[in-house]
Automatic annotation (TrEMBL):
One Pfam short name: Gly_kinase
Molecular function, one GO term: kinase activity
Organism of derivation: Billgrantia campisalis
Designated name of the protein: Glycerate kinase
Keyword Kinase (UniProt): yes
Organismal lineage: Bacteria, Pseudomonadati, Pseudomonadota, Gammaproteobacteria, Oceanospirillales
Family, similarity comment: Belongs to the glycerate kinase type-1 family.
Length: 388
């Protein structure tokens, strides 16, 4: 029996690679001779870089940049010299995980560090960039990234705007002549894990701003500021991508990537599956086990388990999801190719205990699933043919 282990990360508990190892331990307990393909995955959010580096063998580099609050930090990125491809994960520089809850400020956080990572890639001679969005602490629609890359965002007095999305309300003029000229020959693909537009009730500020520290009145302020940015951008460039699905990803970074970098926005899980050769791996698979922190009705917007299930369904391979939590509406996953889904908890427990025991619980669930499939295979093999 051949099993692909393709989990995403379990937020605040396990990176995808460790999650795959925990699953593998459980399956080996049930069937030591089972063939396992550990294939950690990601959908563009935190941990996707690690999954891609593991799959592609790209070199892991690190660069001193500025975090979402403008403090110096070290951020990892990937480099494939043979193909001159750079792998950049926004969360490494401007991620929410770098900030304590009390530090989160959607009004003033910046994507400057992402621009600094892109500059490092250009210095290496990058001709292709895979930019992974998700897990951001920012809501500046990529303004900080643009400033790091040489653009000038000016107020009515001709002064540069300070960091953060709120400052975009004062934007009067965009000066793009200073953008690094090497960007013109950089082919950019952007991995997004949501399909939200830039503005409105489903936009970056309304949907994701609160988890980045925005209060209700601040959400309205940010949405208006991003609207001002979109208006100025449309006036300067003659194109408007505010309604593009995924434009609202990572606080509007999807909008900036498409508008200023000419990026193709793709569901992150599809991009990662391409990079790891997932369809080819399915050819030998009897079962796929995937999972992440939560499976719910919103997972259809581009989350890892659903992308895996849709691909596996086309090849007739069953998929089991191990989720930290099964949220409201998770049952819709069955129609997308998920054979079965299970929550990890083995009894009443608080969040802290669940996070601490994540690896242990994954191992136990994977073992039980393997035992069930082994028995099912034995029963099928022993069943008499019709007419015997």
């Amino acid at each position: 029996m051949n099993v692909i282990l393709a989990p995403d990360s379990y937020k605040d508990a396990l990176p995808a690679r460790d999650a795959a190892r925990a699953m593998a331990e459980g399956i080996r307990r049930a069937g030591p001779k089972m063939q396992l393909d550990e294939c950690p995955m990601g959908d563009g959010g935190e941990g996707t870089l690690d999954a891609l580096l593991a799959a592609t063998g790209a070199e892991r580099l690190d660069q001193e940049v500025h975090d979402a609050l403008g403090r110096s930090c070290r951020a990892a990125w990937g480099w494939q010299p043979e193909t001159r491809t750079a792998y950049i994960e926004l969360a490494e520089a401007s991620g929410l995980q770098r900030l304590a809850p009390a530090e989160r400020t959607a009004l003033h956080s910046t994507t400057r560090g992402v621009g600094e990572l892109i500059l490092a890639a250009l210095e290496r001679g990058a001709q292709r960039l895979l930019l992974m969005l998700g897990g951001s602490a920012t809501n500046d629609a990529g303004a900080g990234m643009l400033q790091a890359l040489g653009a000038r965002l000016l107020d009515a007095a001709g002064q540069p705007l300070p960091p953060g999305g709120a400052a975009l309300a004062r934007l009067a003029r965009l000066e793009l002549d200073g953008l690094d000229p090497r960007l013109a020959s950089l082919a950019v693909e952007t991995a997004v894990d949501v399909d939200n537009p830039l503005l409105g009730p489903r936009g970056a500020s309304a949907v994701f701003g609160p988890q980045k520290g925005a209060m209700p009145d601040e959400v309205a302020t940010l949405d208006a500021a991003l609207g001002r940015f979109a208006d100025c951008t449309a006036a300067a460039l003659g194109e408007d991508h505010r309604e593009l699905p995924g434009a609202g990803a990572a606080g509007g970074m999807g909008f900036a990537a498409r508008t200023f970098l000419g990026a193709e926005l793709r569901p992150g899980i599809e991009l990662v599956m391409d990079q790891v050769g997932f369809e080819a791996r399915l050819a030998a698979a009897d079962l796929v086990i995937t999972g992440e922190g939560q499976l719910d009705g919103q997972s259809l917007a581009g989350k890892t388990p659903i992308g895996i299930a849709r691909c596996a369904r086309a090849h007739g391979v069953p998929v089991v999801v191990l989720a930290g939590r099964l949220g409201e509406g998770w049952q819709v996953a069955h129609a997308e190719g998920v054979t079965a889904a299970f929550a990890l908890a083995d009894g009443p427990m608080g969040l802290e205990e669940a996070l601490e025991r994540c690896a242990e619980l994954l191992t136990a669930r994977a073992e039980n699933i393997a035992r069930l499939f082994l028995v099912a295979g034995s029963v099928k093999a022993a069943a008499p043919l019709v007419g015997d």
